[in-house]
Amino acid sequence: MTVIETAPLGVADPSKPTTVHLSGEIDIFTSAALRRQLLDTLDHSTSVLIIDLSQVSFCDAGGLAVLVGIQRRARMMGITLALSAPRPFMSRLLHITGLERGLPMVV
Q1: Is-contact 20 36, C-beta < 8 A?
Q2: What CATH number does domain 25-106 carry, 3.30.750.24, 1.20.140.10, 3.90.1150.10, 1.20.1560.10?
Q3: Among 4, 8, 17, 70, which residue has the fewest nearby CB atoms (within 10 Å)?
């Protein structure tokens, strides 16, 4: 299951990014809930949203679709979305699908 932890958004400093930490599997069983949670996070985000992938153990096409959809929504809201700390399998998946060019990475 995917778990989301965010910094307290009620007191978010607009000069600092909002960071979301994901863990577990992002798949057909968890992607709908993840989408809802990320959309809610966008509503309270600063101008930069970073999705930390360091604890994601699996991601399927549904999970990638969530990331692409959230990026599109973020752009429409004037929010920059970036991914951070993907595990090697996730980096390969983003590379193979060409999404590494469209989903920026931060170090």
Answers
A1: no
A2: 3.30.750.24
A3: 8
